[in-house]
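ok so I'm stuck.
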Amino acid sequence: MSITWKLEEFEHVTSTNTIGRERLAQATDVHGTVLQARHQTSGRGRFSDRIWRDDPGESLLISIV
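replied:
not stuck anymore, here's the structure
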């Protein structure tokens, strides 16, 4: 099985993880989509009780669907 990667870049989002989960729930993205942001305001790790803080442009902020 081969995956075609699709990169979506955002300047500012709440959370790349949240966007990925919403799109999966709506079936609007296929597996292999990479969501990348320069800054996020409500980022979190794989678990909802963890918070991710960043300075704009200083971190690699991605989620892979």
